[in-house]
Amino acid sequence: MIPFMLHSPETGEPLKADTPHSLREAESGARWPVIDGIPYLRTNRADLVRQTLKLLDTGERGLALEGLLADQDDWWTGPPADPLDLHELVRDNAKLTLRDAVRLLGWGRVGDYFVNRWSDPTYLAGLALLEAHWNDPVCVFEFACGIGQYLREFALRGIKVAGADVVFAKLWVARHWVVGPKAQFVCFDAGSAHWPIPEAPVDLVVCNDAFYFLDGKAEVLDCLRQNAGDDGWLALSHIHNSDCPGFSAGRAVSALDIDELFPDGLVYDDAELTRALVEKRAPSPRAPLDLKQCEAFSVVAGPGMRPAPRPILDGITLPRKGAKLRLNPLYVPEPGGGYAIHWPSERYEAEYAARATYPMHSAGPETLDWAGGENTPEATRVRVREFVDLPERW
């Protein structure tokens, strides 16, 4: 675990353990709830913080957890989660799958993306960006980490990991189904008056498919640079281009914005990274103003980054040696034998079908023992995500 020192998002005061389920500000005495080792530090949820602490103080952990799991970000447009579903999730989480959890949380189409993210082209672009500039980090912090797919890849390789997100439920799912107990998580708003982890330099700061959502991008980027310290680096992938309308909400940025935000950066077309992975070559960075028509940008920056990209061969883009892989769950059995891709939704198909790396049909099998390495017979099928390394309780 990375020993982050947490600070109050309202006053900037250091936070100290108050009880097993709360943190306290030394001067003001204000308290913040903690469940399953995840501090809840959202600043615009005073009533929820107060109610959660009251329930925790009286031993009603289950009800307190249900309240935090119902909380969403301000971009959420779907219906609220069903309280009965949340009660079932809290009661039975030890025997439920990741898919069960996503369903009971009521995440709808967002859940489709989460449970299938291990093979989506934008996720692979992020892995390719990391491998192209990999320098064996010891500690990694992912901002807006979602349910922790990237953090899982780091943790499986023995790297210390920490993640933050504005939605507590995503961190809780990461803890129980994806990353595990050793990661440090913290829930907070990017727009807090004070960055809750100001004294936490790490080797690598990651942010995938989220930076474009943020208000105050320059200020948040300054905080992330502080987390990377004097020797670390930043990898921010799939930043939506405002000049190329796409499928996601948020506040996309232009090529000029990228140029101004990352004067020290190497900038890529997100789709170029996915192609480089499939083609086993180094991706080609471009000047931001030459990428005005790309759907999304990816950037590495900071003093610790590699000065030039290397070929995408057999690093973090491939599963760890000895993993038991499963046939990509997007495949369903065909009546005449074999398997064919079945899209979870029309939106998912419209967004990813044209850039999918995996074939539309597969002969199987349903599982594969992965010996590891680029020269194994199954390497190409694994590289394109015909087979994937899913969590045990997927």
Structural account:
Helix content is 30%, strand content 18%. With 394 residues, it is α+β, with helices and mostly antiparallel strands. The protein has 3 domains: 15-98, no CATH class; 117-144 and 190-301, 3-Layer(aba) Sandwich (Rossmann fold), CATH 3.40.50; 324-388, no CATH class. It has a 7-stranded mixed β-sheet with strand order 7-6-5-8-9-11-10, sandwiched between helices. Helix 9 (217-228) links the parallel strand 8 and strand 9 (233-240).
Could you provide a short overview of the structure?
With 394 residues, the chain is α+β, with helices and mostly antiparallel strands. It is built from 13 helices and 17 strands. Strand 8, helix 9 and strand 9 form a beta-alpha-beta unit.
Topology diagram in text:
Elements: E1 15-19, E2 22-25, E3 31-35, E4 38-39, H1 46-57, H2 61-69, H3 83-92, H4 98-104, H5 108-115, H6 121-132, E5 139-143, H7 149-156, E6 160-165, H8 168-178, E7 184-187, E8 204-208, H9 217-228, E9 233-240, H10 255-261, E10 266-269, H11 270-279, E11 296-301, E12 324-327, E13 331-333, E14 339-341, H12 346-352, E15 361-362, E16 367-369, H13 379-383, E17 387-388
Parallel strand pairs: 5-6, 5-8, 6-7, 8-9
Antiparallel strand pairs: 1-2, 2-3, 3-4, 9-11, 10-11, 12-16, 12-17, 13-14, 14-15
Helix pairs in contact: 1-2, 2-3, 4-5, 6-11
